[in-house]
TrEMBL record:
GO terms for molecular function: GTPase activator activity. The lineage of its organism: Eukaryota, Metazoa, Ecdysozoa, Arthropoda, Hexapoda. This is GTPase-activating Rap/Ran-GAP domain-like protein 3. Residues 899-918 have a biased composition (Basic and acidic residues). Residues 153-367 form the Rap-GAP domain. The keyword Oxidoreductase does not apply. GO terms for biological process: regulation of small GTPase mediated signal transduction. It comes from the Eukaryota. InterPro entries: CNH_dom (IPR001180), Rap/Ran-GAP_sf (IPR035974), Rap/Ran_GAP_dom (IPR000331), Rap1_Ran_GAP (IPR050989).
Amino acid sequence: MRSYLQLSASSEPGALDAVARRYRLENGNSLGEKDELFGPPSAPVLENPEFQTRWYFKYFLGKMHQNYIGVDGSREPYLLSVVQEGGAGLLRAILFNKMGAHKIYLPPSAWSSGGGQAPTRPTVKQILSQFPAMERVDKVPREITCAELQKDVLLLEEQEGSVNFKIGVMLMKAGQKTDDEMLSNEEGDEKWQRFISLLGDKVRLRGWNRFRGGLDVKGDMTGSHSIYTMHQGHEIMFHVSTMLPFSKDNKQQLERKRHIGNDIVNIVFTEDSVHNTFNPQCVKSHFTHIFAVVSEVEGEGYKLSVYSDDTVPPFGPSLPCPPVFNDPQLFRDFLLVKLMNGEKAAFQTPTFALKRQRTLDSLIRDIYAEHCSDHKVPMLSRRALSDVWSGGAGASGAGAARTEHFLHIGQALKLDAVLRGDAPTSFASTGCGGSRRAPWEGRVWRAAPLPATPICAEQMSEGRLLLSTTSNTYILEESGTTRVVLRWEGCVRTARVTERAGLFRVGARMIAGGGSTTGGAGGAGLYALPVQELCAGAWAMRPLQDCKHARLPRTKTAHYFDLLETGEGGKTTLAVAIGRRVMIMIEESKTENEMGFEYVHIKDIQLSESPILIKLMDGEVEIMVVGYKHHWEVLDTSTAQSIKRAENSEDSGPRRGTLVNALRIGDERDGQIVLCYNHTCHFERLTSKGLESDGEYDFHWTTVPAAVVCAFPYIMAFAEDLLEIRLVANGSLVHAACIPGLKLLCGRKDIFYVACAPEYVPLSREFNPCLSLHDELVKQMSKQSGPYSVDEDENHDRDYYSPSSRTAPSENNSASSRSSSISSEQENMRPPLQRMAPISPPTSPQVLPENSGRCVRIYKIPQSNLSAGAYQRQSVSADQVVTSYFSDRCRRPNSMRQRLAELRLDSKSRGGGDDETL
């Protein structure tokens, strides 16, 4: 099991640590790993990738944008950057303060006044209010038009961590226990040579002009050769102990320790196949936080164990069980991703976080002092946001020159960072992960010619989809068949399917011009139709007026409903919202009933106001989450009593907002629920005393989602033109894509969504480092800005998901392929960048007639691809290292919250805890 336990302090003379540090062990047998909270080990995922998180470099630098400086309610300075994307009115904003960079993505609907009116331009105050803890800003910040400020903002963003990595590699021979002994090994055996050759390519350091990781490239002062590789767009330089200078007179090998001891991540290659001889306390370094212990097991493959300082937040991917990799290339891909994720997570520890906060605070205060003196702020700072988007005040003369200078400086900074290799733009990958499809990558399921806009959908058995549009309701099959099952035009608002019935919430008829009418029949309400008859087409030709007998009683004005199914043969509970009242009904089989079933009314629950969302959840206590216009509450359905309300005094600020969805994670015994509102995903745990807030686990989306679904271990947010995917376990971003026309149809099983974007958007341009800087800048500024202009590395993702990369020959995973990435022809240039398609083309294209109506593209993300259970595990006993160095006092947690608590360090464990020393 995973636990936070204290290792025995080193007994060696001159030990550096007076107090023993605690380490978290991952060996494939811990509970969190067996539950695979980070996805299957066969598909390692890079968390918080720079090409999606470094917004200022990607979306701002080189474009016309605005920068503001101000102070918040605590008199702390902050810097706000705002940019418009294309001509659709989409905004990206970054707020820099001493806590880091906070990012939001704002579609026009975020500030639209509604009523069909055109969205107005937001004010700076409205944009600031979208950020947490910035709802109340007394003084509007000042705009800084100085072009050189872009360099300072770029420096602020670079504090998030390095784009490139340096990793130490040590050899541990039999009988060795201290770092001095490991660093004194002059050479290794055949297994050692095979392992370091697997990590990367042997490169000559003298004259090396790529990332050097602190090694000397002029006079061979740190050795003549080293190991280097590129993986998923990141350059990695390994500090290999046997390649660093060796001194017979210096037992501590300070020259080697100077590099390896200052690496956050170290690899220890050991001859011990059981991994019970390495103790992380033997390495005397305050800087190293993560150790990866590797051994080659004869006839089995590579075995891996990972030790992490207990202040390091949990990170993926989860180790397989047993942690043995038969495929060397799969092991290489897994190991590099694991170590890169580990270094990213280590930057959140107090050791680094406090230093970063001090650095950010100092930089922002310097910017504030330099640019906010009254005599240095020009009158241009009073312009509105719309001025810069329309070309700036004074589009000719001084205004045009100012704009040109601003763009010139930004593009020069961007190009310089690309040529230095310090920018997240080099997407060449040399691992086997480069040819693997991402688990969340959607495929075109159907391209159906439908004459209306999709409204809702529900997945049925045998690969069928029940789809309701503004015209009719259809059953679509993947084979290409489309059948009309209901001709209730403009009426169906929501659809759900149970084992026996299909439920349809019917509203007013839609008419031309966006209005509605109830019609003569007044058929609004909640209808329940037998699934077998529905699929057979028995209701296809029946108008709504002839189906009144299928409408549930007292549901004529229903505006929302939810279902809770308790499994095969279990009861199905139905909750229907009618004004301020929620009706609770149970589905029962009734052979004497014409329909074959009946919904029996149980009770009513009276609410304080009309809800906009209700969610039923089972468990030890059945609860109902109710979302209102500006807050939410949780009710006990058996007693109708409120368990917790969002407007409690302690929750009056961040807990208020429009509830988008409420999700259950974990098993039946688990009371963990996730509430999604505003930009926030908030965790609550149901106990016998009520709800316990897990606010420490909260994370924030970059935009307010329109729909949120959980496909464990991932949680996915669908917003206007934006798909964002994060890990449930730690909230880390793993994928984001701009998809025009994005709308979620259903996500209870497989995930279906529609999009109107073409699968592949061509590049507007590519960086050509062979051109001179002046020619490149002229080429950039000669192009008009548009939805896909200026930056080849922005808007979408890395090229190795494209079909051309997926069909690359298998030798790309070999050492010869890695060598080709650093050939003489490419030493001075970065590989060209391509956009990733957010969606994939159909496997068998359909030719649709031009007069067949609107072609609706439906995309599918199979649940089997996302589910952690897709990885087949073997059952093995715990590693001997647990009994050798640890006292396992933990019991198996019985809830998802406890499992997450094992991975997310609470405040006490971060502080060191009071565990006994062995």
